[in-house]
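User: I've been trying to design a sequence by hand for this structure and keep getting stuck. Would you show me what you'd pick, starting by listing the structure so we're on the same page?

Assistant: Good idea, let's start from the same input. This is the structure you sent:
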Protein backbone atom coordinates (compact mmCIF):
# COMPACT_ATOMS: atom_id res chain seq x y z
CA UNK A 1 0.00 0.00 0.00
CA UNK A 2 1.21 3.50 -0.81
CA UNK A 3 0.17 6.35 1.50
CA UNK A 4 -0.02 9.95 0.35
CA UNK A 5 0.57 12.74 2.86
CA UNK A 6 -0.37 16.33 1.97
CA UNK A 7 0.42 19.39 4.06
CA UNK A 8 -0.25 23.04 3.27
CA UNK A 9 3.05 24.46 4.53
CA UNK A 10 6.67 23.39 4.43
CA UNK A 11 6.96 23.01 8.19
CA UNK A 12 4.13 20.46 8.12
CA UNK A 13 6.03 18.05 5.88
CA UNK A 14 9.73 18.71 6.58
CA UNK A 15 9.79 16.53 9.69
CA UNK A 16 8.24 13.63 7.76
CA UNK A 17 10.77 13.97 4.95
CA UNK A 18 13.58 13.70 7.50
CA UNK A 19 12.30 10.27 8.51
CA UNK A 20 12.13 8.92 4.96
CA UNK A 21 14.52 6.30 3.65
CA UNK A 22 15.52 5.98 -0.03
CA UNK A 23 13.93 9.35 -0.73
CA UNK A 24 13.59 10.71 -4.27
CA UNK A 25 12.17 14.04 -5.41
CA UNK A 26 10.10 15.00 -8.43
CA UNK A 27 8.20 18.14 -9.43
CA UNK A 28 4.74 17.66 -10.95
CA UNK A 29 2.43 20.59 -11.79
CA UNK A 30 4.71 22.89 -9.80
CA UNK A 31 4.46 20.74 -6.64
CA UNK A 32 7.50 18.93 -5.20
CA UNK A 33 6.77 15.32 -4.28
CA UNK A 34 9.11 13.27 -2.11
CA UNK A 35 8.79 9.49 -2.32
CA UNK A 36 10.38 6.96 0.00
CA UNK A 37 9.64 4.66 2.90
CA UNK A 38 8.63 5.49 6.46
CA UNK A 39 8.48 2.64 8.96
CA UNK A 40 8.86 0.29 5.99
CA UNK A 41 5.76 1.66 4.25
CA UNK A 42 5.73 3.35 0.84
CA UNK A 43 4.97 7.03 1.30
CA UNK A 44 4.80 10.08 -0.95
CA UNK A 45 4.61 13.49 0.69
CA UNK A 46 4.04 16.97 -0.67
CA UNK A 47 3.53 20.55 0.40
CA UNK A 48 0.52 21.72 -1.56
CA UNK A 49 0.54 25.40 -0.62
CA UNK A 50 -2.20 27.36 1.09
CA UNK A 51 -5.75 27.38 -0.29
CA UNK A 52 -8.23 25.18 -2.08
CA UNK A 53 -6.85 25.39 -5.63
CA UNK A 54 -3.28 24.53 -4.65
CA UNK A 55 -4.59 21.67 -2.52
CA UNK A 56 -6.72 20.26 -5.35
CA UNK A 57 -3.84 20.44 -7.85
CA UNK A 58 -1.60 18.59 -5.43
CA UNK A 59 -4.12 15.86 -4.62
CA UNK A 60 -5.02 15.20 -8.27
CA UNK A 61 -1.39 14.98 -9.38
CA UNK A 62 -0.56 12.72 -6.43
CA UNK A 63 -3.37 10.33 -7.27
CA UNK A 64 -2.69 10.18 -11.01
CA UNK A 65 1.12 10.17 -10.88
CA UNK A 66 1.85 8.10 -7.78
CA UNK A 67 -1.22 5.84 -7.66
CA UNK A 68 -1.61 6.27 -3.90
CA UNK A 69 -4.07 4.00 -2.12
CA UNK A 70 -5.12 6.67 0.38
CA UNK A 71 -4.35 10.28 1.31
CA UNK A 72 -3.95 11.88 4.73
CA UNK A 73 -4.15 15.65 4.83
CA UNK A 74 -2.34 17.00 7.87
CA UNK A 75 -1.74 20.44 9.25
CA UNK A 76 -3.13 23.09 11.53
CA UNK A 77 -6.53 24.73 11.95
CA UNK A 78 -8.50 27.18 14.02
CA UNK A 79 -11.01 25.81 16.50
CA UNK A 80 -14.74 26.38 16.02
CA UNK A 81 -15.97 24.59 19.13
CA UNK A 82 -15.43 24.90 22.87
CA UNK A 83 -14.15 21.33 23.19
CA UNK A 84 -10.97 22.01 21.19
CA UNK A 85 -8.23 24.34 22.37
CA UNK A 86 -4.72 25.06 21.15
CA UNK A 87 -2.69 21.87 20.63
CA UNK A 88 -5.79 19.65 20.69
CA UNK A 89 -6.57 17.77 17.47
CA UNK A 90 -9.55 17.69 15.12
CA UNK A 91 -10.21 14.58 13.02
CA UNK A 92 -12.71 14.81 10.18
CA UNK A 93 -15.60 12.42 9.80
CA UNK A 94 -16.64 14.69 6.93
CA UNK A 95 -15.52 17.88 5.20
CA UNK A 96 -17.41 20.82 3.74
CA UNK A 97 -16.44 23.83 1.63
CA UNK A 98 -18.09 26.75 3.40
CA UNK A 99 -17.45 29.20 0.59
CA UNK A 100 -19.36 27.16 -2.01
CA UNK A 101 -22.53 29.18 -2.25
CA UNK A 102 -25.20 28.89 -4.94
CA UNK A 103 -27.98 29.66 -2.48
CA UNK A 104 -29.31 32.33 -4.87
CA UNK A 105 -30.43 29.38 -7.02
CA UNK A 106 -32.18 27.72 -4.09
CA UNK A 107 -29.31 25.40 -3.13
CA UNK A 108 -28.11 24.88 0.43
CA UNK A 109 -24.88 26.70 1.24
CA UNK A 110 -21.92 24.38 0.74
CA UNK A 111 -23.56 22.30 -2.00
CA UNK A 112 -21.03 21.03 -4.55
CA UNK A 113 -22.78 21.22 -7.88
CA UNK A 114 -22.34 18.03 -9.91
CA UNK A 115 -21.94 15.91 -6.80
CA UNK A 116 -25.14 17.18 -5.18
CA UNK A 117 -23.42 16.91 -1.80
CA UNK A 118 -22.72 19.38 0.96
CA UNK A 119 -20.67 17.06 3.16
CA UNK A 120 -18.06 14.61 1.86
CA UNK A 121 -17.37 11.72 4.26
CA UNK A 122 -13.84 10.73 5.15
CA UNK A 123 -12.80 7.08 5.31
CA UNK A 124 -14.03 5.39 8.49
CA UNK A 125 -11.06 3.02 8.82
CA UNK A 126 -8.55 5.83 8.54
CA UNK A 127 -10.50 7.99 10.97
CA UNK A 128 -10.58 5.23 13.59
CA UNK A 129 -6.87 4.50 13.19
CA UNK A 130 -5.96 8.16 13.64
CA UNK A 131 -8.13 8.34 16.75
CA UNK A 132 -6.47 5.20 18.13
CA UNK A 133 -3.04 6.78 17.61
CA UNK A 134 -4.20 9.97 19.34
CA UNK A 135 -5.70 8.11 22.27
CA UNK A 136 -2.57 6.04 22.79
CA UNK A 137 -0.48 9.23 22.83
CA UNK A 138 -2.85 10.85 25.31
CA UNK A 139 -3.73 13.72 22.97
CA UNK A 140 -7.13 15.29 23.40
CA UNK A 141 -9.10 15.14 20.17
CA UNK A 142 -12.56 15.40 18.70
CA UNK A 143 -14.15 13.87 15.60
CA UNK A 144 -16.48 16.01 13.52
CA UNK A 145 -16.91 18.25 10.51
CA UNK A 146 -13.83 20.13 9.32
CA UNK A 147 -14.77 23.27 7.43
CA UNK A 148 -12.71 24.52 4.47
CA UNK A 149 -12.62 27.81 2.59
CA UNK A 150 -10.28 30.36 1.10
CA UNK A 151 -10.43 32.47 4.24
CA UNK A 152 -8.32 32.66 7.41
CA UNK A 153 -11.07 32.63 10.02
CA UNK A 154 -10.07 34.94 12.87
CA UNK A 155 -13.34 36.66 13.73
CA UNK A 156 -15.68 35.41 16.45
CA UNK A 157 -18.80 35.99 14.35
CA UNK A 158 -17.27 34.02 11.48
CA UNK A 159 -16.47 31.14 13.79
CA UNK A 160 -19.94 31.13 15.28
CA UNK A 161 -21.54 31.14 11.82
CA UNK A 162 -19.50 28.13 10.66
CA UNK A 163 -20.26 26.26 13.86
CA UNK A 164 -23.98 26.94 13.64
CA UNK A 165 -24.33 26.41 9.87
CA UNK A 166 -22.26 23.26 9.45
CA UNK A 167 -21.59 21.97 12.96
CA UNK A 168 -17.93 22.55 12.23
CA UNK A 169 -15.32 21.76 14.85
CA UNK A 170 -12.32 23.35 13.05
CA UNK A 171 -11.69 25.67 10.10
CA UNK A 172 -8.86 25.53 7.60
CA UNK A 173 -8.13 26.10 3.90
CA UNK A 174 -7.35 22.77 2.18
CA UNK A 175 -9.08 19.65 3.55
CA UNK A 176 -12.44 20.09 1.85
CA UNK A 177 -10.93 20.42 -1.62
CA UNK A 178 -8.61 17.44 -1.05
CA UNK A 179 -11.64 15.43 0.08
CA UNK A 180 -13.48 16.54 -3.07
CA UNK A 181 -10.66 15.33 -5.32
CA UNK A 182 -10.32 12.04 -3.44
CA UNK A 183 -14.06 11.41 -3.59
CA UNK A 184 -14.31 11.77 -7.36
CA UNK A 185 -11.23 9.54 -7.78
CA UNK A 186 -12.51 6.88 -5.33
CA UNK A 187 -9.46 7.28 -3.08
CA UNK A 188 -9.97 6.96 0.70
CA UNK A 189 -8.92 10.05 2.63
CA UNK A 190 -8.59 11.45 6.12
CA UNK A 191 -8.04 14.95 7.47
CA UNK A 192 -6.22 15.65 10.73
CA UNK A 193 -5.73 19.14 12.10
CA UNK A 194 -3.79 20.19 15.18
CA UNK A 195 -5.36 23.33 16.61
CA UNK A 196 -3.00 26.30 16.29
CA UNK A 197 -5.37 29.20 16.96
CA UNK A 198 -8.52 29.92 18.93
CA UNK A 199 -9.86 33.20 20.32
CA UNK A 200 -6.51 34.85 19.69
CA UNK A 201 -6.76 34.26 15.94
CA UNK A 202 -3.64 35.27 14.03
CA UNK A 203 -1.69 35.93 17.23
CA UNK A 204 -2.25 32.35 18.44
CA UNK A 205 -1.35 31.04 14.99
CA UNK A 206 2.07 32.71 14.96
CA UNK A 207 2.82 31.33 18.42
CA UNK A 208 1.60 27.76 18.09
CA UNK A 209 1.58 26.82 14.38
CA UNK A 210 5.00 25.15 14.34
CA UNK A 211 4.35 23.17 17.53
CA UNK A 212 0.94 22.10 16.26
CA UNK A 213 2.37 21.06 12.88
CA UNK A 214 5.08 18.93 14.52
CA UNK A 215 2.43 17.26 16.66
CA UNK A 216 0.46 16.42 13.51
CA UNK A 217 3.56 14.82 11.98
CA UNK A 218 4.15 12.74 15.10
CA UNK A 219 0.62 11.40 14.87
CA UNK A 220 0.80 10.62 11.16
CA UNK A 221 4.09 8.70 11.58
CA UNK A 222 2.34 6.50 14.12
CA UNK A 223 -0.56 6.14 11.64
CA UNK A 224 1.89 5.00 8.96
CA UNK A 225 3.45 2.51 11.39
CA UNK A 226 0.04 0.92 12.01
CA UNK A 227 -1.29 1.20 8.44
CA UNK A 228 -1.05 -2.53 7.77
CA UNK A 229 -4.38 -2.80 9.63
CA UNK A 230 -6.15 -0.86 6.87
CA UNK A 231 -8.11 -2.93 4.39
CA UNK A 232 -8.65 -1.22 1.03
Amino acid sequence: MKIGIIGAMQMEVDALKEQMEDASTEVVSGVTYVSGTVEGRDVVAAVCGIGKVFAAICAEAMILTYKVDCIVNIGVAGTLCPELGVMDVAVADKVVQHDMNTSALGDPIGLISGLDMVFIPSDGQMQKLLCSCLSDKGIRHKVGTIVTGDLFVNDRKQREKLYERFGGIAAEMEGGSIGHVCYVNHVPFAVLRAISDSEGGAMDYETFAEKAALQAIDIVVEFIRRSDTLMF
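That's my pick for every position. To get oriented when you compare it with your attempt: The chain has six helices and ten strands. The longest strand covers residues 70-79.
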